[in-house]
Amino acid sequence: MANVKQQIKDLLAVTTQCTVDIVLRHARLNVEEVRVLPTDNHFGRNADGGDTAPNFEESVIEWPLRPSVALASPLPLLWSGDGEWLEQSECWAVDQGAISFIIDALTSFHLAIATNLKHVSISLTIDFVRPLVAERPFILSSRLMRVGRRICFLSAEVHQQQGDRVWLCARGEHAKATFTRGVQVGNPGTTASKL
């Protein structure tokens, strides 16, 4: 897992300043708390039959974030689901454009970590289910659904505790076109446009 955290830090070191500002400064990604969840397909079989070759297809990464009000707009009172309204001071909803940007960036990081392939987005579709409240922690779970020869598919879900319940706030599907030459993470010549 330490290797994944280092890969994330390496990707953040070579990505655009805008991505760093939004993901680290405003969405407050906590790199030290990022988790790769075990899945049935997390380890593939190597040539001698042992379970040692990592296989990131169907892998899930949980990205803990806490968005600032810099990414939000005032929201009328929000029903908490437990019979109460959220306080006015808590009623700042994270902008849907910011959520889209964060989903795009973190699913792209997931693919870069898992495959080391250069890629570009083909499509990103997001359903906004419930407002995401600023200044409260949330988890973005990205899943690498399928790695094809030319196209990869990822999904993401954003969950946040509001009141006494954890709510699904957004979910997305991300398709990426890949290139055959890999990206060397940490290579000074690597830029975000190459990721």
Automatic annotation (TrEMBL):
Signal peptide: none annotated. This is Acyl-CoA thioesterase-like N-terminal HotDog domain-containing protein. Pfam families: 4HBT_3. Residues 119-173 form the Acyl-CoA thioesterase-like N-terminal HotDog domain. InterPro entries: HotDog_dom_sf (IPR029069), TesB_ACOT8-like_N (IPR049449).
